[in-house]
């Protein structure tokens, strides 16, 4: 029997993740790129040309988008990071809000949020912390982050007894929305009070939807929650779009689910579809967006195309 530790495990039991070398060529991704050259996109609709978004001559106030789906692992955090980074390439100033106590958004940008003593939790609970002192820069120019860590899980309980508990995030963000063009709120996988806060603070909701059969089930409940928030808390709330993620153009299953999604939600579904590729887990380990990690990859191109659609909607 070998006495060596298994690969990836150091003495002492800490797991070491080896970072995949940065790809010299992103050509392998193109195999998974849209298969059709007939003018039909992966949604089955004709491809539309979305023009280059005009540059802005001044910034703010931001459009606030909640990236929301109560199912975990559907691409919320990945989409928040990469859409945010892609928006900056079009000259937009972006603030990402990590609104999941798991802190995956912060970690995905290489920020050790568990070591921070000032996070969005402190600003949200009005603990005399200035929001501007919580905002941190990221590796992407013009993209800032409001980090979070496990402290935020206490907010869900503590907010229950607050007056105006559903509007805590709206109040918290108010002083800085003027500084940005987009604020993207990465929600936790639940429809609890934190998510309701994100919906109450948002102008629009972006719903990532995994191209798997069971992922369709929860969407009705999510849309029901969005409708209630619109009626009771935030009349301007809109569904900006449904983003199909983890699409595999080679499988019939993926294509069938895609067809069902378009049938059910029509024009709400973005033309842009995010293919399943190992590049995304790699970027998490690298702690940077795919737009900088593998800038010419199909994944980077897809999030740039999504950014155009979001700006145009
Ligand atoms: N298009 C994709 N293809 C393959 N893996 C993906 C894709 N998008 C995200 N992932 C991976 O799937 C996992 C869950 O994604 P994540 O964005 O964290 O989902 P959520 O925030 O909804 O829980 C992560 O490991 C991520 O790297
Ligand atoms: Mg997440």
Automatic annotation (TrEMBL):
Organism domain of life: Bacteria
Cited Pfam families: AAA_31 (PF13614)
Stored Gene3D superfamilies: P-loop containing nucleotide triphosphate hydrolases
Domain AAA, residue spans: 63-239
Region entry Disordered, spans: 26-58
Compositional bias segments (type: Basic and acidic residues): 49-58
Role description: May play a role in septum formation.
Family that this chain belongs to: Belongs to the ParA family.
The name this protein goes by in its record: Chromosome partitioning protein ParA
Origin species: Actinokineospora fastidiosa
């Amino acid at each position: 029997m070998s006495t060596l530790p298994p690969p990836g495990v150091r003495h002492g039991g800490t797991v070491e993740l080896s970072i995949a070398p940065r790809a010299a060529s992103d050509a392998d991704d193109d195999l998974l790129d849209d298969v059709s050259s007939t003018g039909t996109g992966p949604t089955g609709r004709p491809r539309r040309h979305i023009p280059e978004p005009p540059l802005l001559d001044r910034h703010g106030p931001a459009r606030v988008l909640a990236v929301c789906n109560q199912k975990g692992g559907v691409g919320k955090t990945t989409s928040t990071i990469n859409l945010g980074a892609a928006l900056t390439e079009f000259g937009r100033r972006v603030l990402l809000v990590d609104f999941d106590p798991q802190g995956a958004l912060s970690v995905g940008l290489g920020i050790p949020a568990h070591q921070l003593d000032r996070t969005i939790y402190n600003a949200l609970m009005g603990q005399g912390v200035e929001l501007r002192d919580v905002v941190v820069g990221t590796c992407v120019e013009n993209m800032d982050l409001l980090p979070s860590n496990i402290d935020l899980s206490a907010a869900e309980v503590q907010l229950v007894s607050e007056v105006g508990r559903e509007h805590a995030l709206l109040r918290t963000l108010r002083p800085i929305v003027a500084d940005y063009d987009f604020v993207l709120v990465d929600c936790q996988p639940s429809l609890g009070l934190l998510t309701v806060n994100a919906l109450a603070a948002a102008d629009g909701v972006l719903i990532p939807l995994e191209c798997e059969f069971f992922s369709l089930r929860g969407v009705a409940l999510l849309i029901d929650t969005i409708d209630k928030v619109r009626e009771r808390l935030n009349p301007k709330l809109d569904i900006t779009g449904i983003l199909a993620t983890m699409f595999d153009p080679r499988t019939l299953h993926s294509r069938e689910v895609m067809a069902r999604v378009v049938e059910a939600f029509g024009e709400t579904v973005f033309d842009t579809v995010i293919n399943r590729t190992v590049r995304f887990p790699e970027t998490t380990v690298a702690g940077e967006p795919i737009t900088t990690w593998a800038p010419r990859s199909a994944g980077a191109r897809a999030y740039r195309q999504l950014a155009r659609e979001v700006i145009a909607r």
